[in-house]
Hints:
The complex is a heterodimer. Chain A is of the alpha/beta class. Chain A has a domain at 6-90 and 164-254: P-loop containing nucleotide triphosphate hydrolases (Rossmann fold, 3-Layer(aba) Sandwich), CATH 3.40.50.300. Helix content of chain A is 37%, strand content 27%. Chain A has a six-stranded mixed beta sheet with strand order 6-9-10-3-11-12, sandwiched between helices. In chain A, strands 2-1-4-5 form a four-stranded antiparallel beta sheet, with helices on one face. In chain A, strands 7-8 form a two-stranded antiparallel sheet. In chain A, helix 4 (116-130) crosses helix 5 (147-161). Chain A is globular. Chain B has one domain (5-353). In chain B, the strands form three sheets. In chain B, strands 4, 5, 7, 8, 10, 12, 14, 16, 18 and 20 form a ten-stranded mixed beta sheet that branches. Chain B has a nine-stranded mixed beta sheet with strand order 3-6-9-11-13-15-17-19-21, covered by helices on one side. Chain B is α/β, with parallel strands linked by helices. Chains A and B meet through helix 2, strand 7, helix 3 and strand 8 of A and helix 6 and helix 7 of B.
Amino acid sequence: MPEQGLRISNLRCSVAGNEILKGIDLTVEPGRVQALMGPNGSGKSTLAFSLTGHPSYEVSGNVELDGEDLLALAPDKRARAGLFLSFQYPAAIPGVKVANFLHAARQAERPGDLPPAKFRALLLEKMEQLGIDPSFMGRYLNDGFSGGEKKRLEMLQLAVLAPKYAIMDETDSGLDIDALKDVGASIAALRASEEGRKTGFLIITHYPRILQYITPDVVHVMIDGRIVETGGHDLAHRIEREGYDKIREKIASVV
Amino acid sequence: MSSALGTLPQTHELYERLASCDGTLVDAAARSRALDRFFSLPSGHERPGRFWRVDFESLVPEAAAIDRNGGEIGFENPDPAVVVCDLATAAREHPQLLSRAFATSEIAANKFGALAYAFAGRGVFVYVPADHACDEPIVVRYHAAAGSAIFPWSVVLAERGARITVIERITAGAGAFVCAAAEVVTGDHADVTCAVLQDADPEARVIASRAARPGRDSRLAWNLAELGGALAAGDLRVAIEAPGANAHVTALFFPRGSQHVDLINTIDHRAGEATSETLVKSAAAERGQARFLGNIRIAAHAQGSDARLRDDALLLSPTAHVDSVPALEIAANDVKAYHGATVGAIDAEQIFYMESRGIERDAAERIIALGFFEPAVEAFPTAALRDEIRAALAAKLS
């Protein structure tokens, strides 16, 4: 039995010759929530894309998903292995209806597990759970969606695909206060669901505000491509009070 | 394989063939003049250059290939209040009605329209009386046998306040040549939808000339799906001569293999306060090539016109080629005119997004490309026809 978890060790990543990630070690266990906080440009989103296999990123190191060598897999296979990324900026795909897309994704990840009628029932159930209007199903994927709608659709995908590990990249960014409340409620509902309790989460965020809706077990702080501090939920509160500068100063004084 | 196309120096054979055709709707002198125009006029289509393989100027039907019966013609009419008949019957039983629409457009003034006119006589006439709403679509079928040449002509006349949908299906066997024409004339407040599904053999050639004259405050939709043929060329004109008309032209095509598509759409705003909307969605793969020329003309007195032209092309292989040429000629000063065109490959971020949901790259590309066509597909009448087009596009994508 391989060791459970999304186990990242010495992950390095370069984009166009610039090293962005300078050796990341991090483990996301099933059912647990890791928060990764950091200022803009610290490499948080690069980590998300490196793990999911974005073609623009040159990645080295080792990542295992429940014992499987993740970096050896193409992006679609990583997803089928149980990895999910909630995008900061989800792509709009005009002409592709949400319901059809989700069905294609569910079929790809779990071939033949649900006949269309049952899939539809599942979709409606998840939409109700997350407080999402059923009219979403007939809309084109992210096309003309508001920022909040896009993020809620990401949450719906997460609920329908029920991955083993979910990375949420800046899910709260670009949302006004009402949209944040709606998206936050979706996240809380998701986390409270039967599948959501088993999922391992990596919450990538600049602001601690999203952590009101999903409580982290561990908080990491990333600066300049390195994890510089790890602590409990109280670390997030400290960042809220002090910002990232205090941590920056501390690193500078060590160097 | 036999081919319905010959080489240029067979003029006399064609004239002789023409003289021997019975049941034509055009008198001998007019036919001869039309054929003269066919031989003398430039096509207006792309000349072979760096990219283009098809030389329209040398396309001539083989006289011996001309099918005197006009191929197989079929039609379904679910509504007894609507007249649907072949052109010969229309000429015999409804000559007055037919003459209000047949050859009343500028079709015979262009090269291939003149050819179709010279041989005009086989085709279908559809007539909808005033204020009659026909809810079931009228289906018209034209089929050219392998190696044959046909010249089908559709005529649709919808009276004031009439509503109708006509679906024209064009098929052709290998080596066939179809030189088609269609004319649509509508009364005031009419609502007419015409859809064409062209699914000829990949070794056939189909050239169509189409023209519409919508009435005052009428709605006219013309939807073209050019899916088959080694060559699919079309010249579609909507002449807006009555104020308040509302014209929607939608075209989709997808050349792959060595298919070639060349469409010219012209919306002529000659009356004010009318709107037109043109939507073209195309993809090209392998050595497929296409050109779309979208003309919008707004005459000086056509104030208050609102013309929109949107044309998107998706390149699925580096060897595929699509040329998109919007051309606006606006002489009025109080109008709205918009045109937008895009040509490009599938966005890598869209593919990655799909892949990140477990969908394989090939499947992702297929889903995205089908979605790309969807706004055009949705304009077509009937769910069954839309599904048929989606299936045909999906087959071309796999």
